[in-house]
Amino acid sequence: MASHIVGYPRMGPKRELKFALESFWDGKSSAEDLQKVAADLRSSIWKQMANAGIDYIPSNTFSYYDQVLDTTAMLGAVPPRYGWTGGEIGFDTYFSMARGNASVPAMEMTKWFDTNYHYIVPELGPEVKFSYSSHKAVEEYKEAKALGVNTVPVLVGPVSYLLLSKPAKGVEKTFSLLSLLGSILPIYKEVIAELKAAGATWIQFDEPTLVKDLDSHQLEAFTHAYSELESSFSGLNVLIETYFADVPADAYKTLTSLKGVTGIGFDLVRGTKTLDLIKGGFPSGKYLFAGVVDGRNIWANDLATSLATLEALEGVVGKDKLVVSTSCSLLHTAVDLVNETKLDQELKSWLAFAAQKIVEVNALSKVLSGQKDEAFFSDNAAAQASRKSSPRVTNEDVQKAAAALKGSDHRRATTVSARLDAQQKKMNLPILPTTTIGSFPQTMDLRRVRREYKAKKISEEEYVKAIKEEINKVVKLQEELDIDVLVHGEPERNDMVEYFGEQLSGFAFTVNGWVQSYGSRCVKPPIIYGDVSRPKAMTVFWSSMAQCMTSRPMKGMLTGPVTILNWSFVRDDQPRHETCYQIALAIKDEVEDLERAGITVIQIDEAALREGVPLRKSEEAFYLDWAVHSFRITNCGVLDTTQIHTHMCYSNFNDIIHSIIDMDADVITIENSRSDEKLLSVFREGVKYGAGIGPGVYDIHSPRIPSTEEIADRISKMLAVLETNILWVNPDCGLKTRKYAEVKPALSNMVAAAKLLRTQLASAK
User: Fold this and answer.
1) Which candidate among 101, 107, 473, 735 keeps its CA 20 to 30 Å from the CA of 212?
2) DSSP summary character for residue 655
3) Residue 654 gets which letter from DSSP?
4) What are 241-295's pLDDT values in tens digits?
């Protein structure tokens, strides 16, 4: 019985790659320094898996930004604006595509399926001249081989690559991206030939789009692609890997009929219905890579349950053709539980990070070979029983309060237009009011203060004094810039979810449980292990302090329940919506406390609402119903004069615009600039939006500073489809990842652009 890992985290147990990337971007270290850190991380990952007894170890899952951008580089699909003239793609071109540079913006970034990971969206069209321009997959295979580790090189499959792309600017939106299949397959053939020549015996093609609702034309593209590649596969074993959901019946039929394919991988954690398809018939002689160990959560595997699943599958495909695997890449989980020194032993016994999941995969594969580790299985059974019976998991009062929510849709009593009138009378804002999304730059000094306070190296009094000074600085800067609705900059927060989770019951926190979100950006998701409640106010102290520093409206800044849920490692012993309702009630308490404290603008961020939408259409309505309901619960009791904002970023919102309207927020700020303003197309197509809306006017994930004219042009495009009295002017997202040297001129230009448009609108009357 063999074992397989789909992919592994790249950042390192202490975020070594993050710091190496940022040092390189800041010009403090060389490309060679960055490459050395990366090589050391790859070496340790491969050796770790080899030492754990894993048979099929992946390579080319390491990336300096993301695996789709790596594929864009491999295919030489560089948009013309980056000035690339051919040859092997280097860091300058690669990172310009990812982050932009002083003269051109970055490519669009969006969510990787329904995860909090992101990828850079390829921009393709009929004029793209594809060429083999990054030999990374072959180089990393050879690198592992030189270390004595024979790996399975992993490539993003050709069909999924095209389906995850978009037509480039100037290309008709109706352009068929799949028409480019014939242009990219020759490059895949070159890569396959080089890998075969280097000694590879297996190649893994990730085709995760097979779990989505695909039409017959799209499914036919898979059949065509792998038929075309079949001759190149001679002498190789080929694995097609799927993940994140069930494979639909028609896609299963296509997948199991592909030419030249040796093995097929399925996510059997989030794709439990796929089990029935496998039991109903699996092609004889092919390997089944059974993803029974969860690659997206941190709970220890229920080994007894997984073993029963594997034994049932063994009866279908045969012992020699069954491979134990992870459900998806371990990229989406934390690296190693060994690094967690502050979790108590009971909770720790319930968990498994990437390093522990490797051990679980190996233990399951060994037991099927007759080598059961009795002590390991016994400890696992005891931990499963402990988690089910622990009193810390259940709070009866919370469960009763959540159950009492049934029967109401929790809408505010008046219409949004009536509320906006009441709010305008109170605040008297100009047309095109300016604001920011919440956070301001997190300086090294600020991080040091928080770190020292957590380590008890400074007193609470010293900490409050330092944070107050930072808030005062941020408030004064916004007043100098003449921003209309202010934020306090969130200097007390390292992370928008972690900050709230630390103050809610039912949450636990790691020291080094970092997970990559994009590029060098890492997050440390909280662990929701039990029922959730709010013991005391969380933000009122800081928001009230900030409001006392200015006569302008000061936003109270909260993270919404759906985002807290989707950006956490969530308990798997009750439905997700039940946990979300519990969080919503906790945030509702905070909203009402902020209002009582005199805060008249409260932003409840739902940055992650879109990413939680299921990958299958049939499951969307149920999710959107409880997710939108959860948001409404948080603010259903506030006064008409209290303005409720929400914020969303880096997803495709057009297909859920009616659910966004149903959230009934007074103002929504939403990412727009990096995605070529595709959000505006919804309004061009006639969707009526009566609440306030602030489509982002510039991309904060790039160091590039947009000019006043550029921002004014964006605002003008918005005014062509949105009413003047509902449009807000703001950046795409929070500013914490930027430097003040970038933030000050960008915000100054943003305010100047808003004033320019106000003058033009006034003179046009």
Assistant:
1) 107
2) G
3) G
4) 999 999 999 999 999 999 999 999 999 999 989 999 999 999 999 999 999 999 9
For residue 314, with 0-12 CB atoms within 10 Å meaning exposed, 13-18 middle and 19 or more buried, which class applies?
Answer: middle
- Indicate the pLDDT class of residue 674, thresholds 50, 70 and 90: low
Question: Residue 305 CB: number of other CB atoms within 10 A?
Answer: 11
pLDDT tens column, 229-251: 999 999 999 999 999 999 999 99
What would the 3-class secondary structure string for 559-623 be? Answer: ECHHHHHHCCEECCCCCHHHHHHHHHHHHHHHHHHHHHCCCCEEEEECCCCHHHCCCCHHHHHHH
Strands (E), 385-514: 505-508
* For range 625-646, the mean pLDDT: 97
Q: What is the DSSP letter of 721?
A: T
Is the predicted pLDDT of residue 649 greater than 80, yes or no?
no
Mean pLDDT of the chain: 95
Question: Is residue 72 scored above 80 in pLDDT?
Answer: yes
Binding-site residue numbers are: 18, 116, 437-439, 490, 521-522, 567, 605, 647, 649, 658, 662, 671, 733
Cα(390)–Cα(386) distance, integer angstroms: 6
What is the predicted pLDDT for the residue at 138? Answer: 98
pLDDT in tens, 688-709: 888 999 999 998 878 889 999 9
CA 272 from centroid of its chain's CA atoms: 23
Quick one: how far is CA 375 from the chain centroid? 37
Per the CB < 8 A criterion, the answer to whether 184 and 162 are in contact is yes
Q: What distance in Å separates the CA atoms of residue 221 and residue 102, rounded to the nearest whole number?
A: 39
Burial of 382 (0-12, 13-18, 19+ CB in 10 A): exposed
pTM: 0.92
Q: Which residues of 478-516 are buried (b: 16+ CB within 10 A; e: fewer)?
A: beebebbbbbbbbbbbbbbbbbbbeebebbbebebbbbb
Instruction: State the Cα–Cα distance between residues 364 and 758, nearest whole angstrom.
Output: 66
Coil, strand or helix at 7: coil
For 291, the 3-state DSSP assignment is strand
- What's the rounded mean pLDDT across residues 604-628? 94
Work out the number of other CB atoms within 10 angstroms of the CB of residue 475.
Answer: 24
Which of 105-109, 672-676, 739-743 has the weakest average pLDDT? 672-676
Residue 701 falls in the annotated catalytic set? yes
Q: How confident is the model at residue 676 (pLDDT cuts 50, 70, 90)?
A: low
Q: Which residues of 713-744 are buried (b: 16+ CB within 10 A; e: fewer)?
A: ebbebbeebbeeebbbbbbbbbbbbbeeebbb
Distance CA(556)–CA(595), nearest Å, equals 9
Q: Is 198 exposed, middle or buried (0-12, 13-18, 19+ CB in 10 A)?
A: middle
d(Cα 558, Cα 349) in Å, to the nearest integer? 32
Query: Looking at the DSSP assignment, which residues form a beta bridge with residue 486?
Result: 554
Can you give the C-alpha Rg of the chain in angstroms?
Answer: 26
Q: Any idea which residue has 């590039």 for tokens?
A: 704
Q: Are 151 and 198 in contact (CB under 8 A)?
A: no
Residue-wise pLDDT for 137-166, tens only, equals 999 999 999 999 999 999 999 999 999 999
Distance set, CA 81 to CA 70, 108, 176, 728 (Å): 18, 14, 22, 30
Residue 85: pLDDT band by 50, 70, 90 thresholds? Answer: very high
Query: What is the maximum alpha-carbon separation in the chain?
Result: 84
Choose the catalytic residue: 577, 629, 645, 701. Answer: 701
pLDDT value of residue 588: 97
Binding residues for 5-methyltetrahydropteroyltri-L-glutamate, as ranges, are: 18, 116, 521-522, 567
Residue numbering of the annotated binding site for Zn(2+): 647, 649, 658, 662, 671, 733
